[in-house]
Design goal:
- The chain is of the alpha+beta class.
- It has one domain.
- 60% of the residues lie in helices and 6% in strands.
- The protein contains 10 helices and 4 strands.
- It starts with 19 loop residues before the first helix and ends with a strand.
Length: 314
C-alpha cells in the first residue's frame, strides 16, 4: 500500500528496535527507489528531452520521449527492470519478517527452530502482496515524475526560459514531487537574488534537490518496509494457524507506539483492539495505519476465563 506523507520524521531511535527488519532492509529499498528514478530518466532520455525542448519546445513533444508507465504496456522498458528490482527487496523483507515471526512463536512453544520458507508463508498470498505493492509503487514513481516534468516545462514556456536551462532543471529534479520541485525553484530564485549565478547557482540548486530526493526516498522506503514486515508476519501467523500450530481462536491485537505526543489519534483509537487472525480492524487490516506509523501487533490465545495468554509480543 504505497502512500506518501510529507511532514514526518523517522521514528525515534528507541522505537526502532520494534522495526529491526524494516530498518535492516531500508537502505536497500532507498537505493532501489533512487535507481528506479534514474532508470526512468536515464542519460538517453534526458538527451532526448533536451533535443525535444530545443527543436520543438512543446510540452507534448517532451512528454512523448519519456517512457512513463502505461498499464496497457507493462513490459515497456524500463519498467520490467524497475519491477524486478523493487520486488526483490520487498520479497526479502517480507520473508525475513515471516520467518522471524514464526521462529518467535515456535521458540515460545519450545518447538523445532529449523524452518523453511514454505512452512511459514503461503506463496500465493506473498505474490499477490508483492505484485500489488510494486504495481502501486511504479504508478507513484511514474506519476510523480510526469507531474514534475509537466510543471517545469509549463513554467519554463510561460517565463520564456532558455530550453537548455529547462532541460537542466528537469535533470536536477528527477525523483522529486511537484511540491519539492517548486521548493528547488524557490531556492534557486533566492540564491540568484543573493547574487549567485552560473555554475555556482546550478551546483547549489542541485545539492538542495539531492537532499530533498534523499529524504523522499527515505520516506517511501521506511513506509514500504514497515508494510512488508507487517504483511509478512501476518501471513506467517495465518499459515501457522492453518497448519494447526496456532489454535482457531488465536487473535491479534493492535499495539500503538505510546508515550509520545506524535502518536496519532487513529492509532490511539486502534490501540488494544483485538480481532481474529483473518479479521480486519475496520479502517485497516494491519499496521501501518498511515505513512510512518509506528504501530505493531501481537498474537495471543484467549483463555476460557477471559484472561489472555500473550504468546509473543514483538
Ligand atoms: Zn500507528
Amino acid at each position: 500500500m504505497p502512500l506518501e506523507w510529507q511532514d514526518t520524521r523517522p521514528p525515534e531511535p528507541e522505537a526502532r528496535a520494534t522495526y529491526a527488519i524494516a530498518v535492516r532492509f531500508e537502505p536497500a529499498m532507498r537505493a532501489a527507489i533512487s535507481r528506479a528514478f534514474r532508470t526512468l530518466m536515464n542519460p538517453t532520455v534526458l538527451g532526448e528531452i533536451r533535443r525535444a525542448l530545443v527543436i520543438d519546445g512543446s510540452l507534448s513533444s517532451v512528454m512523448a520521449v519519456i517512457p512513463f508507465y502505461d498499464p496497457h504496456r507493462p513490459r515497456q522498458e524500463p519498467w520490467p527492470i524497475i519491477r524486478r528490482d523493487l520486488s526483490n527487496i520487498i520479497r526479502r523483507t517480507y520473508m525475513a519478517a515471516a520467518l522471524d515471526a514464526a521462529k518467535r512463536l515456535i521458540d515460545k512453544a519450545g518447538g523445532e527452530r529449523h524452518l523453511h520458507k514454505r512452512d511459514v508463508v503461503r506463496e500465493a498470498a506473498t505474490q499477490i502482496y508483492i505484485d500489488e505493492t510494486v504495481g502501486s509503487l511504479i504508478v507513484l514513481i511514474s506519476n510523480s515524475q510526469q507531474e514534475a516534468v509537466q510543471r517545469i516545462v509549463a513554467a519554463g514556456t510561460a517565463a520564456g526560459i532558455n530550453p537548455l536551462t529547462t532541460a537542466r532543471q528537469i535533470k536536477t529534479t528527477v525523483g522529486l514531487l511537484p511540491r519539492e520541485t517548486k521548493a528547488v525553484e524557490n531556492r534557486r530564485a533566492l540564491l540568484a537574488s543573493e547574487g549567485l549565478s552560473g555554475v555556482k547557482l546550478e551546483r547549489a540548486a542541485e545539492r538542495y534537490a539531492k537532499k530533498l530526493h534523499r529524504l523522499r526516498a527515505e520516506r517511501i522506503a521506511r513506509t514500504e518496509m514497515l508494510d512488508a514486515q507487517s504483511a509478512g508476519r501476518l501471513n506467517s501467523w495465518q499459515t501457522l494457524q492453518r497448519d494447526g500450530f496456532l489454535p482457531p481462536n488465536a487473535r491479534r491485537r493492535w499495539i500503538a507506539e505510546g508515550g509520545s505526543a506524535r502518536t496519532c489519534p487513529i492509532c490511539l483509537e486502534l490501540d488494544g483492539q483485538d480481532i481474529p487472525l483473518n479479521g480486519s480492524y475496520g479502517i485497516v487490516d494491519r499496521p501501518p495505519a498511515h505513512v510512518m506509523c509506528r504501530c505493531s501487533e501481537t498474537v495471543y490465545v484467549p483463555r476460557r476465563s477471559g484472561s489472555v495468554n500473550v504468546v509473543t509480543g514483538l
